[in-house]
Amino acid sequence: MSIYDMYHPFMSLRYALLGLLAYEPASGYELTRQFDHSLGHYAWQARHTQIYPELNKLADEGAIEVVETGARGRRTYAITETGRAELLTWLSDPTEHSVVRNEGVLRMFLLSALEPEEAIKLLTREVQESALQAEKLRTLAQRADATAAQGERMPFGRLAAEFGLRLWEARREWALWALERIRGYGEHDSLR
Amino acid sequence: MSIYDMYHPFMSLRYALLGLLAYEPASGYELTRQFDHSLGHYAWQARHTQIYPELNKLADEGAIEVVETGARGRRTYAITETGRAELLTWLSDPTEHSVVRNEGVLRMFLLSALEPEEAIKLLTREVQESALQAEKLRTLAQRADATAAQGERMPFGRLAAEFGLRLWEARREWALWALERIRGYGEHDSLR
DNA sequence: GCGTTCATGTAAAACGTTACATGATTTG
DNA sequence: CAAATCATGTAACGTTTTACATGAACGC
Questions:
Q1: In sequence order, what DSSP letters do the residues of B59-99 get, joined into one string?
Q2: pLDDT, tens digit, 9 for 90 and up, residues B150-177
Q3: Residue of B106, B153, B166, B173 to mutate when probing chain A, most A C-beta within 10 A
């Protein structure tokens, strides 16, 4: 691997995998599950069809290595020192203009284009949905805190759960604010 | 059959353009600027090299139309009734499993993989960065509120600015919380 | 007149999803 | 012993980025 490859900006999947493996060894199947259950909802999505080839590539390059083989051809990977160094470089790199893509947020951005009644309908749904998502994560976080032994290393998902929780709460409060704003404009209309 | 097996076309760019044009007519150049300055930071990114072909496609299909041609080959597009109907359908469609991709958030997720001192360094930077971004948007929002004439239609960016503002505030508060948590675990270590 | 901004475009490469595929192990 | 889950993979297709390209109008 040449040094120039390290400057390629679009290798987020590579670093997502390195990051997960830096926390603890895992198989491609387990990594896929982590994407489905936590990473994929807020940070980065990936399917197994992209993950497996990428793991092979990372192993070829020496950034990760197989540390265990199990039933059904299962291969557990761990990060190497090389890989850890590369991950740290990427995490510390203060690069701007990073990839941002969120279809749900896009829908909220486009509300301004709708008639007030339509916007109100969608915002009302957003309030409910974000309350639901926040509640889910609140439960998850509380359970994690309750079961974690004192002085133990913080579980990987704990920071992530709190992040998601606060993001959904903020979305809910924004939607409530937006509802009030839009209804306010509607009242202006009827007063004219 | 899981949700992933279902056919799902990813046409977010199409709807992003329809949404922007539903608010007001614009040229490809102006739309590109909107992606660069607001949409692209939170909702959806696109470059002019993707936008121009997509506009031509939308025009061919009759979802938008050229309403004005100006200097330097500039073409101003407006949404058609067909296009507006399609947009509304998409916005109202309660689809799950939408695209989520955010490199900055990914970096925060991977913090758990680092040694506490490294994580603290990155979180401290996140606190500063999110404060900066929130302040920018606060100024923008206040200026918009001050200049908006009473009873006038809410400017497109107003909802978006508030959304961004609240998201950055939430990120900042999360980072502060995470710093405390990580320092707390560090103290446990030194107490053992 | 000269550099900057405006304005649009094409093509190759990289990235990501869908469809297709195979077989082993576990659970009931 | 059948269904579900575990576990990995390839190939075609669609999406997005990067590199390359052109020229008109504006500001100084």
A1: HHHTSEEEEEE-GGG-EEEEE-HHHHHHHHHHHH----S--
A2: 667 777 888 999 999 999 999 999 999 9
A3: B106
